[in-house]
Amino acid sequence: MGGVAGGARTVTRWITLVVRCIVGGLFVYAGWVKARAPDVFVRDIWNYRLIPEDFVFWIAAALPYLEVVAGVALITGFQRRGAHVLIASMLLTFVAALASAWMRGLDIACGCFGSAGTDASDYPLLIGRNLLMLAGIVYSARRMRADSAQQASRPA
Q1: Torsion of CA 15, 134, 120, 50, to 10 degrees
Q2: Which of 17, 42, 63, 64 is the least crowded, having the fewest Cβ atoms under 10 Å away?
Q3: Distance between CA atoms of 112 and 110, rounded to whole angstroms?
Q4: What is the Cα gyration radius of the chain?
Q5: Judging by beta carbons within 10 Å of its beta carbon (0-12, 13-18, 19+), is residue 111 exposed, middle or buried?
Q6: pLDDT of 141
Q7: What angle do CA 132, 133, 138 make, to 5 degrees?
Q8: CA 144 to chain CA mean position, Å
């Protein structure tokens, strides 16, 4: 199959790859920055006042590496389905935490990108950024599913 349909499919695949690289790259960067300054990340998590103190340290120790692994998996395509689920779950959790802090009037740094993150006064921007990344993940997952269905329907 060639022609217009083949060209559109190629463009769609490139767009999907770019989306995966952007979202995956952001997760790799965010995890790397937080892993380099775990003390700052512990404080950022604690400031949300959502998690008992004992768990804050475990989350601060594990989450940066989970973000890096999920980002790399999304970029490389290795275990891409798991990366989609994991990153979407993290993004939904981040949106819920940000919305909760915003509704409670907390004036805290988000902790999204370590000390380089955006100030808390930008809650709409932070939530919007996470929702935009979530839209990218949903788009990528749908394209992956469509590509798998298309390959399965091809004659051997």
Answers
A1: -150
A2: 17
A3: 5
A4: 18
A5: buried
A6: 93
A7: 95
A8: 17
Predicted pLDDT at 11: 87
Question: What is the chain written as a DSSP string?
Answer: --HHHHHHHHHHHHHHHHHHHHHHHHHHHHHHHHHH-HHHHHHHHHHT--S-HHHHHHHHHHHHHHHHHHHHHHHH-TTHHHHHHHHHHHHHHHHHHHHHHHHTT------EEEETSPPGGGHHHHHHHHHHHHHHHHHHHHHHHHHHHHHHHS--
Tokens for 28, please give them. Answer: 């790799």
88-134 tens-digit pLDDT: 999 999 999 999 999 999 989 888 887 655 555 689 999 999 999 99
Q: Is the pLDDT confidence value at 29 over 50? A: yes
Q: In this structure, which amino acid lies at residue 146?
A: A
Mean pLDDT in residue range 9-37: 93
- Phi-psi domain of 105 (left: phi exceeds 0; alpha: psi -120 through 50; beta: other): left
Neighbours of 91 (CB within 10 A): 22
Sign for the pseudo-dihedral over CA of 112, 135, 86, 76: negative
pLDDT tens-place string over residues 49-73: 999 988 999 999 999 999 999 999 9
